[in-house]
Amino acid sequence: MRRKMEQLREELELMEQLRDIIESRLKVVLPEDLGTSLMDGVVLCHLANHIRPRSVGSIHVPSPAVPKLSMAKCRRNVENFLDACKKIGVPQLQAFCGCC
To answer: Which one Pfam family would you cite for this protein (predicted)?
Structure first.
């Protein structure tokens, strides 16, 4: 039980560090639920382009007419982000978790 609580506390700290990094680099304020704000891949693609300009050539973004992206466009954004991570030199496992 104690180990589980410690692991949860560590995960929360890492999530806050991730939030701080993204917000400071992109000069944005993310919603409370970080996972939801990253789910469509838009913020991730912008972060990749901030680290290495033009590493993501095309980003699907919501518009006032269509405020929610389709799952296909979200998937494409995330795939573009992962491809950019490879170009930048991020090891594949590290792109999914900070533990490796």
So the answer is: CH
